[in-house]
Amino acid sequence: MEVVRSELTEEVSQLRRANQNAVQQAKKEVEVKTKTLTGKVTSMQQSLCQVHPLVSELLKDYSALKKEAHMFPMKLQASVRQVQREICKSISDISQTNQDLVRKYRHEMKLRKKYHNELVELKGNIRVLCRVRPVIREDGEGPSARQVVTFDQEDDGIVNCLHKGRWQTFELDRVFTQQSTQEEVFEEVRSLVVSCLDGYNICIFAYGQTGSGKTYTMEGPPSSRGINQRALGELFRIVEEGNKDWSYSITVNVIEIYNEMVRDLLGSDPTEKLDIKLHNEGGLHVPGLTYTQVDSLDDVNDVFQVAINNRATACTNMNEHSSRSHALLIVTVEGTNITTGAKIIGKLNLVDLAGSERVHKSQAAGDRLKEAQNINKSLSALGDVIHSLRSKQPHVPYRNSKLTYLLQESLGGDSKTLMVVQVAPVEKNVAETLASLNFAQRVRTVELGQATQK
């Protein structure tokens, strides 16, 4: 029993010693760890002391950035407004500069046209106007009805035509658009018409393919009269309001050239064939031609109605209302000075040519084919005369057709001559449009010499 107690006491002592050793070891480890942690804490405290100023700086920067971000939309709006003001000012300056340039350009254009017209007057060039008709029902629909004619917004003497993907530009004395009125067209020729009262020979003729608007421009419907009636109305107005020392007599003839035959549309028998003869004293005349004196617009309307009833018209596939003959309205003005007895004679020839319709395109046959062939022959002869005049050849073939023979005095000099070329604006007619415009440019270069008074 004593032995057991002794052993237990020894074991307890060992356990105490082991426990004390473990405690001491744990204490040492805790001290080491504590020391390590203390070092780390000290190091962290030192790091935090170093970071704190940076954090403070960052907070300051953040506050400043936040303030800038808050102010940015307002600054951006102010900057945008400033840029807008500067852009608007720049645009305004550019616009003003452009307006000045456009004003100067238009002024130069007017001067150029003025000087050109004066040069035309001196040289006796044939003035050429172009009128483009609107799109009409006969043009149809689809690609063939696409418009191929355009205008220059800044220059009323330029017309462009698109053919096979290429634009061709033509320069004439004046170009009238589809929106131009009969009054605007007449205003351009008014001074020319009036000069026949001063004893000049004047010729105005309309050229172009069938259906391009020649008859509309020259004659016009009752609601919108053309050059013919407006010209006579202007002559009557000037005679009534003009110099009372002069007495005027105005007579008219209306001639048709149909299948190379000259016919009097005011005569009792409009089918009678007339001849063109030379006066003994020079110049051309048509024996048997009816001269009708007109004293008012009512007289003119009566004369026109008789001529319209007698004029040969027929329907072709190309234009159901196309006229198949050349029509010439000849106005003769004879003025007598009541005091001195001096006389002046002026003549105004207003010509509505038949269309230059191609035979295969018109699908004409029989009498219509003969008409088309004769029309093409006379227009070809007109082209030959223009070519001879343009190249100043010694011989000009006026006698190759009745048309050119009758127009000899107008085309051969000592006359003021103007051509209105009529064109259609759509793709299906582009070949005829180009042909008409090319012919117009050739005509424009012809010099007839300065006109003289009779």
TrEMBL record:
Keywords: ATP-binding, Cell junction, Coiled coil, Cytoplasm, Cytoplasmic vesicle, Cytoskeleton, Membrane, Microtubule, Motor protein, Nucleotide-binding, Phosphoprotein. GO terms for molecular function: ATP binding; microtubule binding; microtubule motor activity. SMART domains: KISc. Its main location: other. ATP binds at residues 208-215. The keyword Glycoprotein does not apply. It is a peripheral membrane protein. Residues 125-446 form the Kinesin motor domain. InterPro entries: Kinesin-like_fam, Kinesin_motor_CS, Kinesin_motor_dom, Kinesin_motor_dom_sf, P-loop_NTPase. It is found in: Cell junction, Adherens junction; Cytoplasm, Cytoskeleton, Microtubule organizing center, Centrosome; Cytoplasmic vesicle membrane. One of its GO terms (biological process) is microtubule-based movement. GO terms for cellular component: adherens junction; centrosome; cytoplasmic vesicle membrane; kinesin complex; microtubule. Belongs to the TRAFAC class myosin-kinesin ATPase superfamily. Kinesin family. Minus-end microtubule-dependent motor protein. Involved in apically targeted transport. Required for zonula adherens maintenance. This is Kinesin-like protein.
